[in-house]
Amino acid sequence: MRSSAYIYEKKDYRKAFQWILDISPTYDDGTEIVCVGNHIPGRTGGHITILLVTMKMSEEEARAALQPAHDSAPHGHVISWFCKETSLAQEYDDQHAANPNGHRYAVDNGYVNNDADVVSVLEKAFTTLPSEKSFTLWYAMNPASRFTVADGKLKDMALSMQTDHYFATYSIWEDDSDDDLCQSWVKGIFSELEPHLAGSYLGDADFQVRNTKFWEDEQGKRLMHIRKTWDPRGVIAGYLDKDDKSGVVGLANKR
């Protein structure tokens, strides 16, 4: 396991994001690519972090996978590394540091439409974070997002909502006096983004705050048919909407 990173100041958001957006669809399919809007300890102001992690059979293969990004990265990154050794344990430690215990969270996510101007529509989410520990991330779904039922790769898959662009916001703070600020920031971001979103991923969504689509139409119908047939009393809990009004009928699965 090896990683490369290219960290830019917030003023270079458009340059950095457009670069990784352009190269990700045809990049090595064994390399994970993310773009994160965050704050870097020891530095002032917001930053844009481009991170690539690859898992290969040898150092040479890992270096070859990461080299195209290294060769094409725009000038101006204030911190960077290339093909640095990492591990699953280290990656979990990094995730835990970014998502600390004992804090307050407001989280939401969306799949951005493939025809959207992704850099423009996500700019506010990446560059106006409400607290030092908050972050926004974009994850490159292409080419896996282009798989279809006809390919045989999505057959019987319930988690079927996806586009080329997954993005999520994590508003993180410590004092309850900041609740309104941090929660309203997330709501405001998604209120503006709604026209550009196809739906959401269930894991980082709160349907008591915002309803949206989360399965493709046919998969959703099949799942609800199964539920109504085999669990008509709702013994197995579904996903709660505000005041649990959907009950055993289930969420509407509509934008």
From TrEMBL:
Stated name of the protein: Uncharacterized protein
